[in-house]
Every structure is written in structure tokens, then in C-alpha cells.
Amino acid sequence: MESWLPGSSGPAEVGPRLRGLRGADLAASACLLSGAGAEAGCSAPAVAAVLPAGGSGERMGVPTPKQFCPILERPLISYTLQALERVSWIKDIVVAVTGENMEAMKCIIQRYQHKGISLVESGVTRHRSIFNGLKALAEDQPNRRLSKPEVVIIHDAVRPFVEEDVLLKLVTAAKEHGAAGAIRPLVSTVISPSADGCLDHSLERARHRASEMPQAFLFDVIYEAYQQCSDYDLEFGTECLHLALKYCHIKAKLIEGSPDLWKVTYKRDLYAAESIIKERISQQICVVMDTKEDEEHVGHRLEEMLKNELNHVKVTSGRDLQQIILEECYNFVCVNVMTSDFEETQKLLNMLEESNLSILYPVVVISVQFLDYESEPSGQKMENLMRIREFAKEVKKTNILLYGLLVYYPQVCVSQWLAKQ
Amino acid sequence: MESWLPGSSGPAEVGPRLRGLRGADLAASACLLSGAGAEAGCSAPAVAAVLPAGGSGERMGVPTPKQFCPILERPLISYTLQALERVSWIKDIVVAVTGENMEAMKCIIQRYQHKGISLVESGVTRHRSIFNGLKALAEDQPNRRLSKPEVVIIHDAVRPFVEEDVLLKLVTAAKEHGAAGAIRPLVSTVISPSADGCLDHSLERARHRASEMPQAFLFDVIYEAYQQCSDYDLEFGTECLHLALKYCHIKAKLIEGSPDLWKVTYKRDLYAAESIIKERISQQICVVMDTKEDEEHVGHRLEEMLKNELNHVKVTSGRDLQQIILEECYNFVCVNVMTSDFEETQKLLNMLEESNLSILYPVVVISVQFLDYESEPSGQKMENLMRIREFAKEVKKTNILLYGLLVYYPQVCVSQWLAKQ
């Protein structure tokens, strides 16, 4: 078993840039609910997470295991890690991957700057992988580098949209009941086939639920269950709640989860995940105007139009750009009416590069230039404009996608065009 | 109950333009397997389909019932109808919709030119809707306009990707066993909760399957089952296979379906369906060159590049355009190096409009003009080029999306640019 911790795993250092206010609120509630806060001025409850990620993804129909399939060029598992990292009260995240994928996983952690992750080698089955993850957190193991948590969350690497509120409900319920799992209504009727491939009986849909992930357990409960369980369980079982019931007589509390908890299983799920992520990051846009703005500036007109399409539209002439970038806006339009240079765009690109915003998602910048075609044609002006291709090549290396848009018009038409919109 | 047949419902007239060779092959096999072919020189087996489409789609989280949600601006149910229409041996398709949606459904049938569809009013539950659909096909009903089929397929309006091969397997199995249903492996473990919201027991995943749609039945079997079944069944049941078992003692044959059979249930499923459809129609592109082509024509270079990205790339200077349109190509690039007029593009647009290709999917046409910016600037030339906006508005009404792309370059650069690619 290999263990690897990039940098310190202290929870205070885990992706602070990405943690919103909502996270802080929930952390406070977690504290309140846990009862652990009384001792050390509301210290984070001892919660760790184990992610089995050793699967081969054969159902996906693609050679890459599904947890490593790219969504917007970033591996699926990185989104799941990000979702867990955002939760301030999860101290350690243990990921079980195959020896074959160990190096790739290290690269992912480094590239996307994930913090507080430990890697262990996965087993040949899901249960064995989880067991390996639990061992890395247990007290009775030699050379252990992590401390035993009170509660452990078990989650799937291929469920990237897990929210803090369901994690909190599960952890709270696990403290009370010993185990808790997320459930969803069944989408299809479940049937039991007979040996000859015919219907034996069908189950009443209302009396059954789909058991989803995440699940949470008192660490001692689930570790005990794994230590006691049979080889048959480890080989053929998939359900942790079942082990807790069978070996520790713990009846898990069932928590209704959101539809977002679904497991990325088939290629269509990758499409769905990509669309969900795209929708999330595309709802916020910032229009950057050149500083020679006026009342009738096209930037303001653009703002009006974009507001009909998008949830969050901001306009700036540059002063509060830093703040907008901090709030994780991934889409920018730079509008240049009067100039044929890229001073404003260049400034924005510099700020974006410094912010590291584009590590997690591509940042899109559209630099719009208005040019009067009736004015004297100027080779020099065009050369200036065509420099954008060089910029674009340069910033693409840092995951910033720069596009140039030249609006070529007779001067007199602009006001007409704007009036028409 | 309302019954409505737009035009003739003869199977030979159902969307012949859309029926591929594979469909014809399968129809021949269907004939062979059915044993019905012997009597009347291989007449189509008597198969009808019933589609309950009265659901409210509350799980989708959108006000529109999911079967009417648009995918690429076309309602989901139209894709499902298209999938069934393509199967030459399905004679009638009965769709059960609410009175409220009856007019909307008629519009969909008319707009997308669906043939052989009958509408009936849905019931308040899925089972009641199916029963209404079956009644429209039964012999014992007054004023019936459809003939009783030997086998009836029951399918969901929200499963648009059903393929002919699985339909054929089901119909064949239904003839032999009286009933047949598509199944899929379970993605999640199924559990049974206790009354207090805790785990009672979990089911062994390998011993159970998800019951999907379509299903097929000897008409007399399933109609008998619906006639006998209790009000409780009609109110709270969902599974037709269960009714055939309970009331007619028919153990349905279970047929493994493809992952594509999944039911569009949540918003993410709409995203997935859209991506699947986009992928299908975007893998074929046709590059139309202007007739003043030469060896170094940019169209040929474009072809080389596109071949790395897409499955089917064709290049034409216009002569075999008609054939390419018939083969359902939805993407065109018109490359014009030497002219600033739109003669070639206009020709293509005319052919597309005549073909009705864009009834089912949007057709994308990109008209590319190369223009030397060092040549004498000509207002007239620009005015010509800007006419594309007028064309675009015009053809958008017929679902053709026309884009203009002006590549503005110094003459000397073109060969350099091409050499670099």
C-alpha cells in the first residue's frame, strides 16, 4: 500500500479560495450538531472521507476508467475531490486507486492543486478498495500517517455533484445511528428473473429505494464490519450499509438525497455532467468596457441584452475586476470601441493568470473590437488586431480561451444597430 | 375518447425518406421469424404500439411535462415517434395524451410530419392511459378505426432511442411467450426501508434487474389482463409485465436491452439526450466548394482537417449535392475563395428548403468568404457580404441556421496559412 500526502493536509489549508460563505455557515452548524465544539472552541469534527476509485468503467464503453474521463478536459474525479475539499470539516480524503493509475492520480492532484488527499492502492473489488482506505485511517495499522476520524464518509469518485448539506445530514445521522446512507426513489420497477430468463416476480416500487452514495459511518462500526466480513462479502458485495447491518447489527438511517447524487455510469452520464457543469459556469459573465466609456457605451447595451439570458451579469470598467475574478467568474467580454490595441484585454489576461482561476475550469475571454470600414484602411491597425492570435496561443497554455471578434461597420450604422436591438 | 388520424395510416407511407437499409433488413427478419410471411407473400406482421404520454413530469423540475420538453427545439416525444415510425412493420401507433395536451400533440404530429399516429385521451394514471390505448385497438369497442394487432408494443414517450433490433426481439419473444420486456442491470443496490426510515434489508443486486421499456404482448393477453385487473392495480401499479403475470399467468420473457433505452426522467437526462442527438447529427459534414475550384482549393484542405475530427466528411462542387442531402447530412460549409456573392450558398439553401430535411433537425450552413484586405476596399463588396444576414433571417424560419464567416487576409498569407495547418 502506498501513501502519499502532497503538502500539509490541515483542513484550514484546503482550497480556501473556493470555499463560499454557505460552506462556513454549514461548518458552524456541523460544529453545533456534533457537540465536539464545546471542547476546543469549536474545532472541526473528526470526519474523513474514503473514495474507492479503482473501477475499470467497463459499462462506459470507453477504454479510460470513468473516474478519469475528461469533462471540459478535466478528469471527473477532480470534480468530486473539489466537492469534498470545499467542505471545511472533512479533514482527510483517502482515495483508493490501482497501482497502474497511481501516477496519473498524483498528476491530477498536483495539476488541480487538490489538498489533503492521501492515496492508497485499491483492491480488486470495491469493498476491498474501501477496506484499504479505512485501514489508512485506522489506529491498528503500522506506519499510519492519518489520525482516526470519529465519522467516515464513503463516497464514489464518479458522483461529482455531492453537496455539503447532504454530507452534513449523513454525518449527523451516522453519529446518532452508527450508519447513514443517501437514498433516491426508484426510476424503474425492479424485477426478479427466474433461471430461464423469464419474470419470476416484480417488486412493489413504492416499498423500495435506490441506495446511493455518499454514506457515513461511525468509523469503529464500519471498520469492525470490514474486519469481520467474509471473503465472499469482499468479493461479491457492493453495499456498505449491508455490512454494517450484518456484522454490527446497525440499521442505517436513510436520508433522501437530491437527483444530483446520481452516479456517472454510462457515456450519456458524462454528457449530462458536462452540461450541468457548463450551465453552472456559464451563468455568470463580466463585461469589461474600455476606460473611454460613455453613457451610450456598447458595454451597457450588451449588459441589458445578456441579462435576459444569464443569471449574473456584471459590468466593470476595470476597477472591481479583481473582486469579480475572486468570485469565480469564468466568462469575460472586453469591449473596445475606440481603440485597436489590446491594453484592457492584456490587463485582464494578466489578472486572470495571476489568480489561477483557470486551473479548475477554462476561462473564456472574448475581445471585441469595433472598426469603421469607411475610415481610411490601415494595414497597421489590422496588424495590431491580428496580434490577438498570438495572445490566444500564449494564454491557451494556462487554460484561458481567448477569442477575438471584429465588428466591422460603417460609423453611422452603430447607433442604428444599437437602436434596433 | 378522441381519435385522430392525420392522413392515411398505412405502414408503407410512414416516413420512407427516413428508413435506412438496416430497417429493411430487420423487417425481412421480422417477417421470417413471425411465420406470418407464408400466407400473403411476407406481409408485415400485425404489430401496433401504444405510448402512454399523459405524465406530468414532476420529477424534471420544469413546468412542461417531460415528453414535451424541447431537445434542439423539437419536443422529446417527436424523437420517440420518429424511432417507432422508422420500423416498417409497426402498423399503428396509439398515443395517449391528456385532453389539455391534445391540441399541442396534434400540432407536433403535423409539424414534424408524423404518420400513422392515433391519439386517445390519457387516464389519470399510467395504467389507465395504456388501457385507453389498448381499447382503441380492441375489437369489442364501438366506432373503432384501427384493426386489432396480433402483438402490441408498449413503450414510453420519454425513451427516444429505442432501436429496431430490440423491438424485433421483444415482438418475437411475445409471440412465443405471450409477453416480453426489456431489462437492464441495476446501477444501484435496491434497499427496503423500515417504517422509521432506517434500513430493513438490501437486495442482492445480481439477482435483480431494472424493468425498462419497451415491452411487447400478445394483444389478447394484455387486453385481458387490463380488463380483469382491479382498480387498485390501475391506480397504483406501473408494471405491465406484472399484470400479465397476475391475471393471465404469463411469465414474460426478459430481453437484455441496450443502455440507450433509459428513460428521460430528470433535467440531466434532457442534457444527455441532447448531447447524444447532437453527436449523431454532427458526425457528418459536407464541404461545398465554389465551382472555380483548383488543386489547392481551401475546400480540400478543410476536408483533410475535418477528417481528423468527424466520421463522415464529403466534398462536392455541387453535382452530387442532392444525393448528400438525401443521405441526411445536416452540416454544410460553403467555401467561396474567389467571389463575394452567394450564388453557391443560395443554390444549396434552395435545395435544402425543397428537401424538407430541416423539419426534424436544424441544418447548419456556414458560408465562408475569403477577402483580401490589401485589395482596394469596396463598399459594394461589403454590402454584398452583409446580405448574408438577410438570408440568415429568411432561412431560419425553415430551421436552417446560416452563418457567415469572413476570412479577411492579405493575399500573400493564404498559402502560408494553409501550409502551416
UniProtKB/TrEMBL annotation, chains A, B:
**What sort of enzyme, by top EC class, is this?**
transferase
Molecular functions (GO terms): D-ribitol-5-phosphate cytidylyltransferase activity
This protein's pathway? Protein modification; protein glycosylation
Cellular compartment(s)? Cytoplasm, Cytosol
| A biological-process GO annotation | isoprenoid biosynthetic process
Q: Which GO terms describe its cellular component?
A: cytosol
Extent of the signal sequence: none
Alphabetized UniProt keyword annotations: Cytoplasm, Nucleotidyltransferase, Transferase
Q: Where is the D-ribitol-5-phosphate cytidylyltransferase C-terminal domain?
A: 283-411
Q: Could you tell me the EC number(s) of this protein?
A: 2.7.7.40
Question: Has keyword Cytoplasm?
Answer: yes
The primary location reported for this protein is: cytoplasm
A Pfam family the protein falls into: IspD
| Described function | Cytidylyltransferase required for protein O-linked mannosylation. Catalyzes the formation of CDP-ribitol nucleotide sugar from D-ribitol 5-phosphate. CDP-ribitol is a substrate of FKTN during the biosynthesis of the phosphorylated O-mannosyl trisaccharide (N-acetylgalactosamine-beta-3-N-acetylglucosamine-beta-4-(phosphate-6-)mannose), a carbohydrate structure present in alpha-dystroglycan (DAG1), which is required for binding laminin G-like domain-containing extracellular proteins with high affinity.
Subunit details: Homodimer.
Family listed: Belongs to the IspD/TarI cytidylyltransferase family. IspD subfamily.
Put simply, this protein is called: D-ribitol-5-phosphate cytidylyltransferase
Mind giving the lineage of the organism this protein is from? Eukaryota, Metazoa, Chordata, Craniata, Vertebrata
